[in-house]
Automatic annotation (TrEMBL):
Domain ABC3 transporter permease C-terminal: 59-177
Family: Belongs to the ABC-4 integral membrane protein family. LolC/E subfamily.
Protein name: ABC3 transporter permease C-terminal domain-containing protein
Keyword Nucleotide-binding attributed: no
UniProt-listed InterPro entries: ABC3_permease_C, Lipoprotein-release_system
Key words of the record: Cell membrane, Membrane, Transmembrane, Transmembrane helix
Localisation: Cell membrane
Main localisation: membrane
Cellular component per GO, a single term: plasma membrane protein complex
Domain of life assignment: Bacteria
Record's bilayer topology term: Multi-pass membrane protein
Length: 620
């Protein structure tokens, strides 16, 4: 078996290298996020920002794991599918299906010998590269070292190993199915037919995606937004299940609708005849288009909703940032100022205990808790959309206001208590108010006397004195403005910047996986190019044909990928906003252009290199 594996690796080096690159990148991406997740949970030096770090890293891990799993599974399955003839020849000379499947699985696991350590190192490098970003946004202290955790790296490797082995086992069932003669036949035209089980699964996933896209109308705040984002991946999954049929249908309709053109005849015929192969190109690029569109759109929508909630909820005459512990007292002494409050935040934990007699346990959820301090009724400066209770009771001992999002799915309400841990002290706090503006004010709000060292100044002024107070404060180095202007400036906070950088990192990884799949599929077409060359196809004709096929596939990938993101964006926008937000159109337009250019250039280079090797080395 080892001799067979060595010889197989020598013959299929390009495919194995592509799979190793995909696995290495996947381990690196997940490990980097896992390092920060573990650091946020366990490192006391990050206690003040652990809630934000855990939230950002956990959401990144979820999306990265999904994309990485799809990328690795697609790369492994594509490589095995392209080697079907090799397995057929081995079966013809006596190799059993069990032995060949063992070779495939062992070969897949051996890829991790190189991918695991290199991927872990890549994860450490990526984590180190994000330190300046997180330091600049205030999420980690100065001189904080790059995080590393061996358990996290092992976990990331184990997850990818399971994904790769399952993908290899599933692909091997198809590759080893049937008689050897069937796999060696020259025609090898792929029928774009789907089994009953696959059709039913696609319909179920499609229905689940449609239902998930409508969740913002039924579920509050970010819970509904999260379900809407999931709908995009469900719709992409449904698209992948019926990909061959869609690809063949597109090619057939195009041949009938477009004028007869010799330049398009061969590419469209190839797309129709090899619909499964082209679907393997279409789906990864559609995933990149969908991921970019849904994340950019929903980020813009939630940012706009947060700004609207802040603008509507900050009732103070003037608002401004706290830059020193003396700012509140300084502003309070200005003529025309009636009251000053400070709206800040602390990192803490909400503790949920289970009193099961046999197996008691507690869940500690890291959260960012909003704090307010002042001397008057909080309802005069804050209106976070209270639906039950009142903020007037918030100045009582051990009280808390909680968002409807945080209480969703529980029976907890006004008068009940929750355990909240702040400053190494756990208190059972009574819920005195429930509000809806969680995007603007967070999930928890407590009274915190003496919290004037940071946050936001909320200033109440005498009638007609707001402008004078702002001018006097500005002369003392304190910037006060109206709530709308202040909420707009809050859009550039560190967490939003970090999320944007991580999004582009995810897009880059997904694009790398798509390019890797495209290159692997082109390398597997050597027999086809040999045959076309024998009947007179020139090098230019082959390059043009493959490039045209890729262009057609990517155009429809962009259209279909964007279409799968539209339901989530529409549902989120309609549920959270009264009007449509200003979307990042420049980025949304640049994304398909980058996809188109990357796919076209990659296809042209890959097929040119393959043809050059064919002319220099006879294919046997």
């Amino acid at each position: 078996m080892w001799t067979l594996i060595r010889r197989s690796a020598r013959v299929n080096t390009p495919q194995l290298m592509g799979a190793t690159v995909a696995i290495t990148a996947a381990i690196g991406m997940i490990s980097a996020a896992a390092f920060w997740f573990t650091a946020g949970l366990t490192d006391p030096a990050l206690a003040s920002t652990s809630g934000q770090l855990v939230t950002i890293s956990s959401s990144f891990i979820g999306i990265a794991a999904l994309i990485a799993g799809l990328a690795v599974a697609s790369t492994i399955a594509t490589g095995i599918r392209e080697r079907r003839r090799q397995y057929a020849l081995l079966a013809a000379v006596g190799a059993t299906s069990g032995r060949l499947r063992g070779v495939i699985l062992l070969e897949t696991m051996l890829l991790f010998v190189a991918a695991a350590p290199v991927g872990t190192l890549l994860g450490f490098v990526l984590a180190a590269a994000t330190v300046p970003l997180l330091r600049g946004t205030g999420l980690v202290p100065d001189a904080y070292p790059p995080p590393f955790d061996a358990v996290s790296a092992t976990g990331a490797t184990a997850v990818m190993l399971v994904v790769a082995v399952v993908a290899a086992w599933s692909a091997s069932r198809h590759a080893l199915r049937g008689h050897a003669a069937d796999a060696v036949r020259a025609a090898a035209i792929e029928e774009p037919t789907l089994g009953t089980g696959r059709r039913i699964t696609a319909l179920v996933v499609l229905a689940a995606g449609a239902a998930s896209a409508a969740m913002p109308f039924a579920l509050p705040g970010m819970i509904g937004v999260a379900f809407a984002a999931i709908s995009t991946f469900l719709l992409i999954t449904a698209l992948a299940l019926v990909g061959p049929v869609i690809t063949a249908t597109i090619a057939t309709r195009a041949r009938h609708l477009l004028p007869r053109n010799l330049l398009l005849a061969l590419p469209l015929t190839n797309i129709r005849g090899f619909s499964r192969r082209l679907a393997a190109v279409l789906i990864p690029f559609a995933l990149v288009a969908a991921l970019g569109t849904v994340q950019l759109s929903t980020n813009a929508i939630t940012d706009t909703a947060a700004r609207e909630q802040l603008t509507a909820g900050l009732l103070a005459d003037r608002v401004g940032p706290v830059t020193s512990p003396q700012d509140a007292d300084t502003v309070h002494r200005i003529d025309g100022v009636d009251n000053v409050w400070v709206l800040g935040s602390v990192t803490g934990e909400v503790i949920e205990e289970d009193d099961d007699e046999e197996l008691p346990f507690e869940i500690r959820e890291p959260v960012t808790i909003a704090t307010i301090s002042g001397t008057a009724d909080y309802t005069s400066v804050l209106a976070p959309g209270v639906t039950a209770g009142s903020l007037t009771a918030l100045d009582g001992d051990d009280t808390v206001a909680v968002s409807a999002d945080a209480l969703f799915g529980t029976t907890t309400g006004i008068g009940d208590t929750i355990a909240v841990r702040t400053d190494s002290e756990t208190r059972n706090r009574t819920i005195v108010a429930i509000y809806t503006s969680s995007l603007g004010f967070g999930d928890y709000l407590i009274d915190s006397p003496g919290a004037e060292t940071g946050g936001t100044l909320l200033v109440g002024t005498a009638p007609g004195a707001a402008d004078t107070v702002s001018s006097t404060a500005a002369a003392q180095g304190i910037d006060l403005q109206n709530s709308s202007d202040y909420a707009t400036e809050m859009q550039g906070n560190g967490e939003a910047l970090t999320s944007s950088v991580l999004l582009f990192a995810l897009l880059a990884f997904a694009l790398l996986a798509a390019v890797n799949t495209l290159i692997s599929l082109i390398r597997g077409r050597r027999d086809e190019f040999d045959l076309l060359s024998l009947i007179g196809a020139t090098r230019f004709t082959l390059v043009r044909t493959v490039t045209t096929e890729t262009v057609i596939a990517v155009i429809f990938a962009i259209i279909l990928g964007t279409a799968t993101a539209v339901p989530a964006a529409l549902g989120t926008g309609i549920a959270l906003l009264d009007s449509w937000p200003s979307l990042p159109w420049s980025t949304l337009i640049a994304l398909p252009i980058v996809l188109f250019a990357t796919a076209t250039v990659t296809a042209a280079i890959a097929v040119s290199q393959l043809i050059r090797r064919m002319s220099g080395t006879p294919h046997q």
